[in-house]
Specification:
It contains eleven helices and 21 strands. With 439 residues, the chain is an alpha+beta fold. The strands form four sheets. The protein has a seven-stranded mixed sheet. A six-stranded mixed sheet has the order 8-13-12-11-10-9. Bound molecules: acetyl coenzyme *A. GO terms for molecular function: aminoglycoside N-acetyltransferase activity.
């Protein structure tokens, strides 16, 4: 759907920061004052930030040569993060992280988001980013644009003192509990996070898909920033670092909020990402945050569905597990994206793909791959083994949702006996995908 006549897509330079914030605050209601909002650092890459303006005649302006001057007002924004090393199964590729999408309520439901998505896809293709990823404000928005929920995360409420299975060596590690200071802890957080995504288990080459890192200075700054106005009544952000002979092996950030009831203190520990490089560090990290005085429960922000804590807890049900959609993925360049990841078994399959929004992706593609090795994708006239839309490919791309599971909902059609199970197996990955932070 084209934009109505009076609207136009524009680039947004940093000089339009206040206008951008105004639209953001219309799209995402917030109780912080304009003054505070303007004082906060922004995570944006300005050369990847755009918007939509409406241009209407300005009745208050003095006509020039008989013509009424036009007034331009920003009504919508969007941006993207440059993830140049976004983990996909067995590889890191350039991915565009769509973010800061907002339309002023006065101008919604007339095709502005649709126009911005088209622009975003064109930008992805021009930049050589074969995949777009996002975390969705509402789960109903992005499926129509060919995105699929490619990762889920686990939310827990772990009772204080919950019993953990013992791990040898945990007690030998040392623990630092400090107030988070970006100057002191920034590099430790960044390095451990990166390592945990590249090698979440002892196996080389098996990464954690979706585990985006904060690659730009702007993102690093905002990630560790802790403005009082955004603490929601909780304390300043703290950090636990677990060390082995002085070498950091794990961390989590956390805040406590203590309420008092007639039975005594009932405090909640809200953590950020919980990251550790080995079983002993994982055990020590969790046993530390599960044993903070005046608290009765720990709520990690969002952790992988296969996080080690699920295997360490003696009574996982007591942690009230629930899952939520995490990263959504859209293959913008289907052959480029399919060839960029690794597969867990040899594969030779013809996929028939439908993609109404990006017709270059439509048609039949032969995907051949060797287990954990190189993959190639070529256009073919051969009869397809499987048919699916680009949204199903996005859903399965990070290895977290099986194509066979999608087929049980009628979303993948098998034309060749056995092709579904072979392809679904090859698309799977030993480690569950997740992004540990909301972008
Ligand atoms: C990656 C991120 O940044 S996620 C953040 C997204 N932003 C927000 O949620 C902020 C608040 N919401 C908004 O700013 C706007 O309502 C937006 C961005 C969600 C939608 O913008 P609009 O310009 O109204 O969307 P547009 O008119 O292009 O709608 C396109 C289609 O999406 C549908 N749609 C739009 N918003 C939603 C929604 N929240 N839930 C379900 N469907 C939606 C429309 O109904 C329309 O469907 P149709 O093609 O069948 O008619």
């Amino acid at each position: 759907m084209p934009l109505p006549d009076t609207y136009a897509l524009v680039d947004l330079p940093e000089s339009r920061r206040d206008e951008l914030l105004e639209i953001d605050r219309w799209a995402f209601p917030s109780s912080t004052s304009d003054e505070v909002a303007r004082s906060l650092p922004l995570p944006l890459s300005w050369d990847r930030t755009s918007g939509v303006v409406v241009r209407v005649p300005d009745p208050t302006a003095v006509p020039i040569d008989g013509a009424v001057p036009v007034r331009e007002t920003l009504v919508a924004i969007h941006s993207s993060y440059p993830f140049s090393h976004f983990p996909v199964p067995g590889a890191e590729i350039p991915v565009s992280g769509l973010t800061w999408v907002g339309v002023h309520p006065q101008h919604r439901r007339r095709g502005i988001l649709s126009a911005m998505i088209d622009q975003h896809f064109a930008d992805c293709l021009e930049r050589g980013e074969s995949v777009s990823a996002l975390t969705a404000a509402e789960a109903g928005i992005y499926g129509r644009f060919g995105y699929g929920p490619a990762a889920h995360d686990l939310r827990l409420t772990v009772p204080r003192g919950a019993a953990l299975r013992p791990v040898p060596g945990s007690e030998d590690l040392t623990v630092r509990i400090e107030t988070l200071d970006p100057a002191v802890h920034g590099d430790v957080v960044h390095d451990l996070h990166l390592q945990a995504g590249r090698q979440p288990t002892a196996a080389a080459g098996i990464n954690r898909p979706g585990w985006a890192t904060r690659e730009t200075d702007e993102l690093k700054t905002v990630f560790l920033d802790d403005p009082e106005a955004l603490r929601n009544g909780r304390e300043a952000r703290r950090i636990v670092i677990v060390e082995s002979d002085g070498e950091p092996r794990g961390y989590t950030t956390f805040r406590r909020k203590v309420d008092w009831s007639h039975t005594g203190p009932r405090g909640t520990v809200s953590t950020g990402e919980v990251v550790a490089l080995d079983p002993a560090a994982t055990h020590r990290l969790w046993s530390t945050i599960l044993d903070l005085d005046l608290t009765h429960e720990v709520e990690p922000l969002m952790i992988p569905v296969d996080d080690a804590i699920t295997s360490l807890l003696v009574d996982p049900r007591a942690a009230a597990p629930r899952i939520a959609d995490n990263v959504w993925v859209r293959l913008v360049d289907v052959p480029g994206a399919l060839a960029a990841r690794r597969y867990t078994s040899d594969l030779d399959v013809v996929l028939h793909v439908t993609d109404a929004r990006l017709p270059a992706n439509q048609g039949s593609w032969r995907l051949t791959a060797t287990a954990f090795g190189k993959a190639t994708v070529t256009r073919t006239d051969d009869a397809p083994d499987l048919s699916l839309s680009v949204a199903e490919l996005g859903t399965a791309y990070l290895g977290g949702t099986s194509l066979a599971a999608l087929a049980t909902a009628g979303r993948v059609e098998e034309h060749t006996d056995g092709a579904l199970l072979r392809t679904a197996s090859a698309f799977g990955w030993p480690v569950a995908p997740v992004c540990s932070w909301i972008f």
